[in-house]
Amino acid sequence: MIKVSQGDLDMMRMLFDRYHLKIFNFLLKMTRDRVISQDITQEVFYKAIKYKTSYKNGKFSSWIFTIARNVFSDHYQKSKSSPKRLDDFEYKTMSEETDHIEQNEVKQQLDQALNQLSDSDRELVIMNRYQGIKYNEIAEIVGSTEGAVKTKVHRAIHKLKGYYLQNA
Amino acid sequence: MNCKQIEELLIDYIDLNLDEDVHKEVETHIAQCEDCKASLQELKVLFGAIDSEPLETPDAGLALNFEEMLQKEKETLSDPKVVKLNAASSSHWKTALQIAATIALVFTAYFFGKSQNNETLSQEVAVLEKEKIELKQTMTISMIENQSASKRLQAVNYAEEFEKPGNEILKALINKMQYDDHINVRLAAAEALAKFADSEMVRKALINALETEEDPSMQIELIQILVSIEEKRAIPSMEMLLQKEETPDYVRDQVKIGLPSLI
């Protein structure tokens, strides 16, 4: 990434290859909408290129996830402020859910349980359990301490477990 | 450790995040405690469900769009760099020129103002000077007719100060030199006129004065002046003085000293 920030854009392709799946799946879990997730992923890498000079030493994954979170919350802010888009969004999630019924039940139950969590809890679980991001890195991404993140993640997992087993 | 404490460690137990002895302690507890074993099982089910979720792959469009974006970025990165450099350097010149122009403007304005000031000032001074001279001339002429000898003397002294006195002044001086009752005024007038000996009128007047003057000190003064201005036309008058019986000896002596340098 240091090479990218120095203007080597071919390195950016390598980073895209390595991380775009993670980012996409993270966003997919957050939004449950393929189109929006792809749009946001696109924007995340666009911003990474655009603001490459703002990258300071540190883990690239933390940096790119920080961008992803910002773009995602920007997106939500936008859709909140425009009711038309919110309707659109809800309609899409509904259609996603109907798709899910046809898919395996475990996944549907899990998604349902995940959806019952608060936004921040869901985000933490997704980052830690789905993306396998370590506590100290999550702390870096969300701007917190490792200990606090670990406690929160554990609480969220227990909550999720409760919801999941309830639904089952 | 009680069950609550164990339950808090279960996630780390699954993730193998615990130290070896703590891990063993949890392990032995679970082997004995059914509740905790059930909790562990539930977590494992949850994590199994999460892990079994397939990684979704985005549409091919995403990678294509990215490629396109990267290409565009490369172009803008290589292109604008050249332009930017040029723009930067030209703007440097521009700034330099702007600064230079500002300095030049300030200086021109300063010097223009200064010269303008000087001009008007010198004009004013010139006008004042002229007025002063005119005033002095009028004053001198009026004073020179004053009844008091000392005033007349003062006027003669004033007249002497003019660099280029007008004819009126010269005539007044000549008049004083020839006809003033007071010897001192006549002497001063003669002295003043000696300065303006360039004028032919003054020279003639000096010669005439020597012919008519009877006061010996005035005669000596006139002889000295005429000799110093090398007026040869005064020679007959001087010779006449030598022949006159009334002429005092010291006047004769003065003539004798002066004559040789004239001839």
Question: Can you offer a commentary on this structure?
Answer:
The complex is a heterodimer of chains A (168) and B (263). Chain A has 168 residues and is mainly alpha-helical. Helices cover 83% and strands 0% of the residues of chain A. Chain A has two domains: 1-99, RNA polymerase sigma factor, region 2, helix turn helix motif (Rna Polymerase Sigma Factor, Chain: A), CATH 1.10.1740; 103-168, Winged helix-like DNA-binding domain superfamily/Winged helix DNA-binding domain (Arc Repressor Mutant, subunit A). In chain B, helix 5 runs parallel beside helix 7 (183-195) and helix 9 (216-228) runs parallel beside helix 11. Chain B is mainly α. Among the domains of chain B are: 3-45, no CATH class; 138-262, Leucine-rich Repeat Variant. At the A-B interface, helix 2, helix 3, helix 6 and helix 9 of A face helix 3 and helix 4 of B.
Search tags:
heterodimer, A: 168 residues, mainly alpha, Rna Polymerase Sigma Factor, Chain: A, Arc Repressor Mutant, subunit A, 2 domains, 0% strand, B: 263 residues, Leucine-rich Repeat Variant, 11 helices, sigma factor (chain A), RNA_pol_sigma-70-like (chain A)
**Main beta sheet of chain B, described?**
none
- List the secondary-structure elements of chain B in sequence, H or E: HHHHHHHHHHH
**What percent of the residues of chain B sit in helical stretches (DSSP H or I)?**
over 70%
- How far is the N terminus from the C terminus of chain A? 44 Å
What is the subunit organization of this protein? heterodimer
Largest interface: pair, residues per side: A-B, 31 and 27 residues
Number of helical segments with 4 or more residues of chain B:
11
| Average pLDDT figure of chain A | 80
Q: Tell me what portion of residues of chain A adopts beta-strand conformation.
A: under 5%
The largest β sheet of chain A comes out as: none
Question: For this structure, what is the CATH class of the domain at 138-262 in chain B?
Answer: Mainly Alpha
Shape descriptor of chain A reads globular
**What's the alpha carbon Rg of chain A, rounded to whole Å?**
17 Å
Distance between the termini of chain B: 149 Å
- What's the CATH H-level superfamily name of the largest domain in chain A? RNA polymerase sigma factor, region 2, helix turn helix motif
Tally the beta strands of chain B.
0
Number of strands of chain A: 0
Protein name (chain B): Putative zinc-finger
Organism (chain B): Aquimarina spongiae
GO molecular function (chain B): zinc ion binding
Pfam families (chain B): HEAT_2 (PF13646), zf-HC2 (PF13490)
